[in-house]
Design brief:
Length: 169
C-alpha cells in the first residue's frame, strides 16, 4: 500500500513511519497546503487542516491512504492549550478517520504573540533560543522536559488512525 504524508516536516514523517510499523507499506511525503491559517487557533480549524493535508497528499501521490497531521492552539478558561490532530483518508470512504493528540498548557504570555499573527514555531525558537524546535522535539518536548516529544505524540496519533482503519477494514 502507498501511504502519502501531507508534510515534509521530519518530525511528522518519522511519526507516520513509526505509526505504520509492522505493515507492508511505502511512504510518500509531499508538501501540501493545509488550506487553513498557518497557525490554527481552534480544534475545528486544526482538524480541517489535517483533513485537507490528508486529501491533497493522497491525490498528489496517487496513494491508497493519505495522512494529514496538524498542530494548533486553543484558548480555554484554563489557559492556552497546544492541540494536535490527525486525519486518514482512503478510497471508497468519504468521511475521514480522525484522531486527537495530547494537549498541554502553553505559557499564558504566548497568547499575545499568537494574536498578533505569529506562529507557535517562531515563538518557541525565540523562547528556547534554539532553531527549528518545530522540526525537532516540539513545544511538547520542551514543556515536558523531553518526556514526550513531537514525534512520539504524532506516532500515537498515527497509531490511533491506523488502528481505526484496521477496525473498519
Ligand atoms: O511543515 P508543516 O507540516 O506545516 O509543520 P509545522 O511544524 O509547521 O506544523 P503545523 O503546521 O502542523 O503547526 C502549526 C503551527 O504550530 C506550530 N507548532 C505546532 N506544534 C508545535 C510544536 O509542538 N512545537 C513548535 N511549534 C509547533 C508550527 O510551527 C506552526 O507554526
Ligand atoms: Mg505549518
Amino acid at each position: 500500500m502507498r501511504i502519502a504524508i501531507g508534510t515534509t516536516n521530519p518530525t511528522k514523517v518519522s511519526a507516520v513511519k513509526e505509526g505504520f510499523e509492522g505493515l507492508e507499506v511505502s511512504f510518500h511525503p509531499c508538501s501540501v497546503s493545509s488550506g487553513v491559517s498557518a497557525q490554527p487557533m481552534s480544534d475545528q480549524e486544526t482538524i480541517q487542516g489535517a483533513i485537507n493535508r490528508a486529501r491533497e497528499s493522497r491525490l498528489q501521490k496517487n496513494a491508497d491512504i493519505g495522512i494529514g497531521l496538524e498542530g494548533g492552539v486553543i484558548e480555554t478558561d484554563y489557559g492556552l492549550f497546544l492541540c494536535n490532530w490527525g486525519a486518514l483518508v482512503y478510497h471508497m470512504e468519504d468521511s475521514p478517520i480522525l484522531a486527537g493528540g495530547a494537549r498541554i498548557l502553553l505559557p499564558e504570555d504566548f497568547k499575545e504573540d499568537l494574536r498578533k499573527g505569529r506562529e507557535l514555531g517562531e515563538i518557541m525558537d525565540e523562547f528556547t533560543k534554539k532553531n527549528n524546535v518545530r522540526t525537532k522535539e516540539g513545544a511538547i518536548g520542551i514543556f515536558t522536559n523531553g518526556y514526550i516529544d513531537r514525534t512520539e505524540m504524532f506516532t500515537h496519533v498515527t497509531r490511533l488512525l491506523v488502528g481505526q482503519y484496521s477496525y473498519k477494514n
